[in-house]
Amino acid sequence: MSFRVLFLLAAVGLAGCRRPPQADFQRIAVPRFENLSGEAALEWMGSALAELAAAGVAGAPRAHPMAVEDSAAATAVRATHILHGAFQRRGHRLLVEAVLEDLRTLKVVRRAAANGLLSDGPGPVADHLLAALQLRARPVAHRRSAALRLYVEASNASDRVATLGQATTLDAGFGAAWVALAQAHLARRDLSGARQTLEEALRSDALDAVDRARLQLMRAALAGQPGEYVQALKNLARLTPADPELFQALALRYRADHDFPASVRAFQEALRRDPDNPFLLNEAGYAFAFLGDATAAVSVLERYRQLQPGEPNPPDSLGDIHFQFGRFAEAETFYLEADARRPGFTGGGSLLKAAYCRLMRGDLNGAEDLFRKFLEVRSRAGDGWVELRRAEWEYLTGRRRPAFQRLASWASAGGRQPDERVLALTRLAIWSLDCGDRPQAWRLAMLAAAAGGGPQSRLAADLCLWVTSPEASAEQWLQRSQRAFDERFPPVIRSTALAYALLLSKHFREAASLLRELGRQTPPSPGEPLPVLLAWALLESGQDPGDLLARWPLPRPEIEQPLPALVYPRVIFLRAQWLEKQGRREDARALYALFLQYAGDQSSAFAERQRAEASLRR
Predict the structure, then answer these.
(1) pLDDT per residue over 201-235, tens digit each?
(2) Quick check: 105 and 20 in contact, CB under 8 A?
(3) Spatial distance between the Cα atoms of 583 and 570, rounded to a whole number of angstroms
């Protein structure tokens, strides 16, 4: 639709059936201005005027500008408003007019026009226009016309770096051009060039506060310093308070730092500015879960589900929340809804989680049916790990001898690739260690180390061989790790190997110290095994696990390395212990009984079956 027709429709206040305004903040889509002059030589001004308009609005307390390709793209960015603009030349003057439309009511909020000398460029006219529309948060009149043109034309230039470099030379205060130049260097994988560009830009006195803050944020992100990055985000959020992406970035950063209260607050601020953002709603749901607030988590995810009634991810996420808080019947319902909406969603992951829901309710037969459906999905997808998955399921449901036999047979079958053999053999080795047979574990780890494979497989085999080494004291394990993992290995590799070796050698107090530090370094995830392993080490060493067992860990459909596979069904036993220490005897008894259903038909190095049976006899 042309600007002229749209202006006419808007002027008569055409009303639609959109939902009424609710948002406290305006999200203003700014497409390129329409060239009504028909002069190809002036075409660049359409993009320049849109850039100037967006730049001038940035920093408004309740308006967030978003550059879009055209009007049709406004819906995709969940715009509440759109700024339609057009320009033309009349003699030596540039005439610009614009309409601010509320997309929720299809009514005009404001319209304005401005004009100026064509020789002065689009900057002064855009500045007057924004002031007339009551949208100007910062001046744009001073932007040099030649720099603007180079900035616009850089998108199609054969050498973007050179073109943008000319723009910044002409106008050292042109923040958007500096950002684009740094990004152009990054697109060339020239990190040094990007850093030099940012340092040069920040030495300019011509930058305003908003542009300086944007460049400082980019510099902090490239530096990889979390503290500096958070401070830069906070500074830019103070200067452009209507931008939801800054609060989203803060929320994700706080979550990575395990600061869940701050993460939730930042997600809430982001949602105030972008209430219908599916990503924000989904991530906020998990953030509330990390905080322990199941009610708020479910509430925000129900909003997500209403926004996307045909999509599988909202019910899958709701299933995850209910699962974490032990509402397994409700979780199963949502997982099956997700699978019904899109069969095979996440590679059948919803079906796998539904199978675990049945397990956690003591219904092994029902769990078997769902797990079989999961394997059918994996088989149809050409998954070569189906037999390994079946063996792992047998192991965690207590059928350990069949699991060992199945996986050993699969690993030794002809035509097996080295990487496949390594994954199977390392799993068998850790299972053997878990069952108390360290010599057998070491022999299997030796076979894995001799199997070859790619770099990751070789590292996994070497780590497994090291962890299954003969028993030693905690001090001896530490000395071994210092000899085995020199400066060629990242510190996290050494810490992880040592933590698992200590844990599986029953040096629980020493393992807990390492696992706690590893947990701080690892971004939280509902399926992350580290909290369970840390809780195990703490309970076994007589320490309080706090809220590490307050939520059930989600099962993960990925084929992982074998060490994290120690979580289920052990977490049922650990939670029973935790509840018993709190005096919740009946709840603990129910979990001890559930654990015994899956405790296995072989002995365990940790005598958990015997301990559970003893607790039930008391």
Answers:
(1) 999 999 999 999 999 999 999 999 999 999 999 99
(2) yes
(3) 20
CB under 8 Å to 44, separation ≥6 — which residues?
148, 149, 152, 153
- Rounded to two decimals, the pTM is 0.91
First CA to last CA distance, the chain: 79
| Residue 20 confidence (pLDDT) | 47
In angstroms, what CA-CA distances link 531 with 221, 421, 465, 528, 554? 28, 29, 24, 7, 12
Taking the C-alpha atoms of residue 398 and residue 368, their distance in angstroms, rounded to an integer, is: 13
**Inter-residue contact 614 to 379 (CB < 8 Å):** no
Six-digit token string for 104: 């929720």
Angle between helices 278-291 and 244-256 (to 10 degrees): 30
Task: Give the whole-angstrom CA distance, residue 494 versus residue 514.
Answer: 10
CA–CA separation, 592 and 599 (whole Å): 10
Looking at every residue in the chain, the average pLDDT score rounds to 93
Phi, psi torsion values for 245, nearest 5 degrees: -65, -30
CA dihedral (447, 449, 450, 455) in degrees, to 10, reads 140
Q: Give mean pLDDT, residues 560-576.
A: 84
**Dist. CA 110–CA 290, nearest whole Å:** 44
Query: What values do phi and psi take at 435, rounded to 5?
Result: -85, 0
What is the number of alpha carbons within 13 Å of residue 369 lying toward its C-beta?
Answer: 6
Which pair of tokens denotes residue 577? 């212990």
Question: What is the three-class DSSP state of 82?
Answer: strand
DSSP state for residue 454 in the 8-state scheme: S
Answer yes or no: is pLDDT of 315 > 50: yes
Mean pLDDT of 564-585: 92
Q: Within 13 A of 179's CA, how many CA atoms are on the CB side?
A: 14
- Res 564: pLDDT: 60
Cα separation, 277 vs 268, in Å, equals 12
Q: Tell me, what's the pLDDT at 18?
A: 45
pLDDT in tens, 238-252: 999 999 999 999 999
Task: Note the pLDDT of residue 12.
Answer: 36
Contact 114, 133 (CB under 8 A): no
pLDDT tens digits for range 200-209: 999 999 999 9
593 — alpha (psi -120 to 50), left (phi > 0) or beta? alpha
Q: 438 CB contacts (<8 Å, ≥6 apart)?
A: 432, 468, 470, 471
Residue bearing tokens 């509840």 = 579
- Give the per-residue SS3 of 370-423: HHHHHHHHHHHCCCCCHHHHHHHHHHHCCCHHHHHHHHHHHHHCCCCCHHHHHH
